[in-house]
Structure prediction request, 304 residues.
Amino acid sequence: MRFLPLILALILSPLMRGIINRTKARFAGRQGPPLLQPYYDLWKLLQKGAVYSTTTTWIFRAGPIISLAATLVAAMLMPLGGWPAAMSFSGDLIVFAYLLGLGRFLTVVAALDTGSAFEGMGASREVFYSALAEPALLLGLAAIAKISVGGSILSSLSQMHSQISLHLWAESGVVLVFVALALFIVFLTENSRIPVDDPTTHLELTMIHEVMVLDHSGPDFAFILYGASLKLWLLGALIVGLVVPSSGIWVVDLLADLVGMIAISVITGAVESMMARLRLVRVPQLLVGAGALAVLALVLEYKN
Prediction:
């Protein structure tokens, strides 16, 4: 059952979007869409045909497929609930970060291939924000490695998550809180959620991720949505694995992490309901703050 975390990610990742949408609807006093609506949307898109502009090349068609493939490989590196990842090796946390970066790069290149000024604008913003988010992510992973396995950046995600216990929280609780906050900001940024981006906006001048995929349709758009759901799950699992301590009993740990995934979905929906989207010039300050939290966590841990 080594593939259990991967199987759960493949099956349950679209459900996170359903929980977020339902939470936002509840805050607005509406019933909201069904929890399984993301699955219906994916199925409907897969039944449709794709339309391609005459100005695009093979890059536009390959972008969604390669991006999804990179995210699927990253999913094989993510443990869950005391279960090791399907594929684990020394230094896989670095490979994990840059597999997500590869997926983002292909999405950006596909957007630029359309020749659209609006999609180029969204691609530029995406690259700028990701350049600020990646240091916070890597510093956060380095802080987790220092806390859990003694500082080796060449440790694996499975090894790091297995060492997060109540005893570790009692010793380094403040440091872990700083890392969790930094990773949550990265989580919102990488998944284009409020306050960084609004996934439901239709105003092209303020769109970031959504404007990059305006020309995609049919199965290509389904691949993009499913890849985004997987990315939401993976970064959420990274935070949950840090916040929820391991008990050593796999059934308890698995249930606790699944509840944690539901909780982070609800928290995301609550944040989007209670906060407004930040002005574009304020987003870099937020991401620099996330990096500062990760650096502070590293400094505090090394002092200890």
Remarks:
- The chain has eleven helices and no strands.
- The chain has one domain: 4-303.
